[in-house]
Specification:
- With about 150 residues, the chain is mainly alpha-helical.
- The chain has a single domain, classed as Winged helix-like DNA-binding domain superfamily/Winged helix DNA-binding domain (Arc Repressor Mutant, subunit A).
- It contains six helices and three strands.
- Strands 1-3-2 form a three-stranded antiparallel sheet.
- A hairpin with a 7-residue loop joins β2 and β3.
- The radius of gyration is 19 Å and the shape is globular.
């Protein structure tokens, strides 16, 4: 390798960022392949499941709350929420106390689709992360450590 190459890594497999990129792309590909069968994109599933989870906790779900919970950009959350509304999977209503906010709620069709999608996604994850074996808990802890260290 040329000694002028501006990286501390001598091989791509030494770069945690590059490895994370590769693993994430492969995982998302598996998710997309499974979700296309029920006419959902991955981000649509993430946001539907996020609404379901927050509603399950008894919360009134705003777009900002959902974006924060899912770590999805607020503009993307808004665009996807509009498409989910057009599909009849959620409602978007003005917040009763904050004129700038919209509250999101699953429709009966949205609830049914989340119930259908969750076992599909759980199966994809089970198959994908199977190789971690007993290290899966530690892997999740390390991912949580990265998330909690993010100051943005």
């Amino acid at each position: 390798m040329n000694s002028d190459f501006p990286s501390k890594f001598t091989e791509a497999k030494q770069s945690p960022g590059f490895l994370l990129w590769q693993v994430n792309n492969l995982w998302q590909k598996r998710q997309r392949e499974a979700l296309v069968k029920i006419n959902l994109t991955h981000v649509q599933f993430v946001l539907l499941a996020g609404i379901a989870w927050l509603q399950y906790q008894g919360k009134a779900v705003s777009q900002v709350m959902l974006a924060d919970h899912s770590k999805v950009d607020i503009m993307m959350t808004s665009q996807v929420a509009r498409s989910l509304k057009a599909k009849g999977l959620i409602t978007r209503k003005p917040h009763p106390h904050d004129t700038r906010a919209l509250l999101l709620q699953l429709t009966k069709e949205g609830e049914a689709l989340v119930k259908k999608a969750l076992p599909i996604i759980d199966g994809v994850d089970r198959n994908f992360f199977h190789g971690l074996k007993e290290n899966e808990v530690m892997f999740c802890e390390q991912l949580l450590q990265l998330l909690s260290a993010d100051k943005h």
